[in-house]
Structures are given as C-alpha cells and as structure tokens.
Amino acid sequence: MDIEDLRVYQLAMHLAEKVWEIVIKWDSFAKYSIGKQYTEAADSIGSNISEGFGRFHFKDSKNFLYYSRGSLYETRTWTTKAHNRKLITEEEYKELLAEIHDLGIKLNNYINTIGKTPGNHQ
C-alpha cells in the first residue's frame, strides 16, 4: 500500500489545496498575518500523516498522527478566524468545517487501527 492509497491522506491533501486556493487570493496583509499560519497548519495535516506512515513502529506512527490531529484543530481555528474577519464567505466556512469534521472522524478511525494487528503499523 502506498500513502496515496489512504483516504485520510487524500482528504488531508485536498483540504490543504482548498485552503491554499482561498489564501492565495487575499491581500498581502491577510496572507502574511493569517494566511501563512493557516496554510502551514493545513499542510501539516498531510505531512504528519505521511511521516507517520513512513515510520516502522506503530508508536512512532501514532505520535505523528496525533500531531496531524493537532494541526487539523489548528486549521479549524484559522478557518474560524478567517470567517470572523470576513476573509472567507459563509459558504466557504461551512464547506471547510464540514471537510475538517469529516477528516477528523477518519483520522481518529485511522489512529485507532494503528498497531491492532501484530507487525502491521498501517
């Protein structure tokens, strides 16, 4: 199995690209003040999933998935801040929150499968 086959990874990558597509259109102040942290948090979700995937011990894998979950919650906070500051529309806000919620469920389910089968860290 390749990392690209994991649905949770695919969703994380999609979310990060969606955030990028939104932030890239902002003015320079918004990009610098919120956008940079927002895109870094969103990018970190998939990055940590892939780093955990590459680890050979399930405890290491889980730790990176926990970091990924933390980045997911940080992304949710930046989404709320962007909405409160009128940088994203109500529709974008609701769509992003729905994607974040769905990804959170799948990420938690993935975390719960790590280490369940002896010798299988994925």
Characterize the structure shown.
The structure is a single chain. This protein is mainly alpha-helical and 122 residues long. It has one domain (3-113): Up-down Bundle (de novo design (two linked rop proteins)), CATH 1.20.1440.60. It has four helices and no strands. The chain has helices at 7-23, 28-53, 58-84, 90-113. It is elongated and about 50 Å long. The N and C termini lie close together (9 Å).
Write out key terms for the chains shown.
elongated; mainly alpha; 4 helices; de novo design (two linked rop proteins); 122 residues
Shape: elongated
Q: What's the tally of helices?
A: 4
* Residue fraction in strands: under 5%
Multimeric status of the protein: single chain
- Report the count of strand segments: 0
Regarding CATH, which class?
Mainly Alpha
- On the 0-100 scale, what is the average pLDDT? 94
Question: Which value, in Å, is the CA radius of gyration?
Answer: 15 Å
